[in-house]
Specification:
The protein is of the alpha+beta class. It is 25% helix and 28% strand. It is globular and about 40 Å long. The model has no long low-confidence stretch (mean pLDDT 91).
Length: 167
């Protein structure tokens, strides 16, 4: 893999259409239910706009300028004080197994800390085991109940990570 052909950058307005296609493709591949998941989020078609508020950013992973995935960080809606949410972290097969998930995780968590968040929350589905292994590697721990109001009632796996002692 030639590293100069891979790029992680902030989402741009012109990315919306392609990014929506990529995210839907991954979600369908993973057999994610439509209702109660990111697949039914109206913001999936306007990801740039969805992250244009305080303490929120979304990055895309590109190979030769082609978007192959992304991930974002934003305040956890109606969650405990200091909590953010890792959101919509999905990659097409070509981007998997290359360490990009770890690079993206580092970028998201560092940005979350710089925004002043103390904890990071995420939701996923049971069959996304590779993602869960990555989350565990980065210090996320399973919890027994959802936090906040994400609207993702079909995501029954909840994890949280403290950002207080990270370096």
């Amino acid at each position: 893999m030639a590293t100069d052909q891979w790029e992680i950058r902030l989402v741009r307005p012109e990315d919306n259409v392609v990014l929506a296609q990529v995210l839907r493709e991954v979600l369908i591949e993973m057999k994610v239910p439509f209702d109660g998941t990111a697949l039914s989020d109206p913001e999936i078609d306007t990801m740039y706009d969805a992250y244009q508020y305080v303490n929120a950013d979304y990055w895309v992973v590109c190979y030769r300028n082609r978007i192959l995935g992304g991930a974002g960080i934003a305040p956890l809606r109606n969650g405990p004080d200091g909590y953010c949410e890792l959101q919509k972290m999905y990659f097409l097969p070509k981007a998997r197994g290359k360490g990009l998930g770890s690079q993206m995780m580092h970028k998201c968590l560092q940005q979350a800390k710089s925004f002043g968040f103390t904890d990071c929350y995420l939701e996923t589905i049971p069959n996304m085991m590779h993602a869960q292994k990555l989350y565990q590697k980065w210090g996320f721990e399973y919890i027994e109940h959802p936090l906040g109001n994400t609207g993702h009632c079909s995501c029954p796996v909840w994890m949280v990570k403290s950002l207080r002692d990270d370096t």
